[in-house]
Design brief:
Helices cover 72% and strands 0% of the residues. It has helices at residues 27-51, 57-79, 82-116, 122-126, 140-171, 176-189, 193-208, 215-239, 243-251, 256-283, 288-293, 312-321, 327-359. It is an all-alpha fold and 365 residues long. The chain is built from 13 helices and no strands. It starts with 26 loop residues before the first helix and ends in a 6-residue tail after the last helix. It has two domains: 27-118, no CATH class; 125-359, MetI-like fold (Orthogonal Bundle). It is a multi-pass membrane protein. Keywords: Cell membrane, Membrane, Phosphate transport, Transmembrane, Transmembrane helix, Transport.
């Protein structure tokens, strides 16, 4: 008896991707982009030579991006259909918008680094501007002032903001006072920084008289700006904690306050830390409120409650606004202070990410 093997199903062979297969090859969008850049680059070069002007880099990039969007939409509509063409067009618009948003960020970072490295030396980080005229000097007094003022502002604002957000989420749901607090927090989020400086100055002037300048006054002004950011960010993170975790703790007989401390806060610690760092980054570069409250000085002052205190934003402003001879020395110190401020913010963000990673609840067994 002969056994006939069952017929095997034919294996479908995918046709090669080409311009006529209903789908554009992967290299086509890149080729269109390169062609747009090359053709319009030649046009702008010819115009620049004819007019005797410099090459218009911004105009070349913008027109090339527009030409690429038009080309990719038209060719995709012919080959792939309208639906896929619209998808490619929207993808291109999003990509171009992202690149446009990155241009000022990269430009600012490059400008600060390029100009700030001229005075990024040991003297800049070890000396102040006391009795310094012209070249030399440093910003150690401004660096310490920025760290101390910001630290004091964080100590004031973080507990207040965090406890306010806990009340709004855990205790004040649906209550009229909670709605009022939310409204006031939203209003405080948009107030100008100079208003916070004037508030701190008026508050301390009641007790110490007009004309007083103290480092702690700057901390109070920055805390006023930090509190609404901490409240809103922490509130959103606490609302993301699943209610099942709270209910499981309540079912085991855990009190509400202990549930918040042991369950809710550890679950949301990563997002809360990010919100706190966002608030610090929001205020560490403020200049106007610190000019009014902490003032400026050329000497090192480590006492927040006695005398004026210099900070990096104010140091940068004063060096650029009050130039002496040679002016290049003042410009170099201003750019170096700006670069130092950016590095401090970057380090604080890295520390915050590390803290969030260490204290975040472990998900594995």
């Amino acid at each position: 008896m002969t056994v006939t093997a069952p017929p095997t199903a034919p294996v479908a062979v995918e046709p090669p991707v080409s311009l006529r297969s209903g789908r554009l090859a992967a290299w086509v969008p890149w080729g269109l982009l390169a062609a747009s850049l090359a053709i319009l680059g030649g046009v702008f070069f010819i115009v620049a030579v004819a007019q005797g002007d410099g090459f218009n880099l911004a105009g070349w990039v913008i027109t090339s991006a527009l030409a690429y969007l038009v080309l990719v939409w038209v060719i995709s509509a012919i080959v792939e259909g309208t639906r896929k063409a619209v998808d490619r067009l929207v993808t291109g618009i999003v990509t171009v918008a992202f690149l446009i948003a990155m241009i000022p960020l990269v430009s600012v970072a490059w400008t600060v680094v390029a100009n700030g490295l001229a005075r990024f030396d040991a003297e800049f980080f070890s000396s102040s501007m006391r009795n310094v005229v012209g070249e030399g000097g440093g910003a150690v007094h401004a660096i310490w002032g920025t760290l101390l003022v910001t630290l004091a502002a964080a100590i004031i604002s973080i507990p207040i903001g965090l406890m306010t957000s806990i009340y709004l989420v855990e205790y004040g749901e649906g209550k009229r006072i909670a709605r009022g607090i939310t409204f006031l927090v939203d209003v405080m989020t948009g107030i100008p920084s100079i208003v916070a400086g004037l508030f701190a100055y008026a508050l301390f002037a009641i007790f110490f008289g007009a004309g007083v300048r103290l480092g702690i006054m700057g901390s109070v002004a920055l805390a006023v700006l930090m509190i609404p950011v901490v409240v809103r960010s922490s509130e959103e993170m606490l609302r993301l904690v699943p209610n099942e975790l709270r209910e499981a703790a309540y079912a085991l007989g855990v009190p509400k306050w202990l549930t918040i401390v042991k369950v809710v806060l550890p679950t949301a610690i990563a997002g809360i830390t990010t919100g706190v760092m966002l608030s610090i980054s929001r205020v560490i570069g403020e200049t106007a409120p610190l000019l009014i409250t902490a003032g400026f000085t050329d000497s090192l002052n480590l006492n927040l409650f006695d005398g004026r205190m210099q900070t990096l934003p104010v140091f940068t402003y004063t060096q650029y606004a009050n130039q002496g001879i040679p002016p290049e020395a003042y410009w170099d110190r201003a750019w170096a202070a700006a670069l130092t401020l950016i590095i401090i913010v970057m380090v604080l963000n890295l520390v915050a990410r590390l803290i969030a990673k260490l204290f975040a609840p472990k998900t594995g067994r």
